[in-house]
Specification:
With about 130 residues, the chain is mainly α. The chain is about 65% helix and about 0% strand. About 0% of the residues are buried.
Length: about 130
């Protein structure tokens, strides 16, 4: 429904999932179920294998793209440091499951990004593609 309205469907899915776990009843009801975890791991692994298989690895050495090993390393370090930890540490007062600075820093560093980040970038690339006539 959110996609039909033109809003961000991945953000809506995140909000729905977050609201399910806000009071922790969903985890308590399903903590003995292993099927969901197995399916989740299977789908995540299959998605990352597929993305790795279609990735244009030979293009990383192309000088016209301006990619080099040191730029990729710097970009990866900056993404790891600045993407989530500062935001989670700043918003920890509004997240009831985080009890302090240590938990906010831990969740910011080790928290999952998952397939939705890759899906989001693929959606953005698809909409900004010149072949779509936009």
């Amino acid at each position: 429904m959110v996609g039909v309205l033109g809003a961000d469907d991945i953000l809506a899915c995140f909000i729905c999932g977050n609201s399910l776990t806000w009071q922790d009843f969903y985890r308590i009801e399903n903590e003995d179920e292993a099927f969901q975890d197995v399916i989740d791991d299977l789908l995540n692994t299959a998605t990352f294998i597929y993305i790795g298989a279609i990735m244009p690895w030979s293009s990383f050495g192309d000088a016209t793209l301006g990619l080099s090993a040191w730029r990729l390393v710097i970009m990866a370090v900056l993404i790891l440091l600045l993407r989530r930890p500062p935001w989670l540490m700043a918003m920890r007062c509004f997240i009831p499951s985080l009890d302090g600075w240590k938990e906010a820093a831990f969740a910011g560093w080790f928290g999952p990004i998952g397939v939705s980040a890759i899906c989001q970038s693929a959606i953005r690339l698809n909409f900004s593609s010149p072949s779509r006539g936009r």
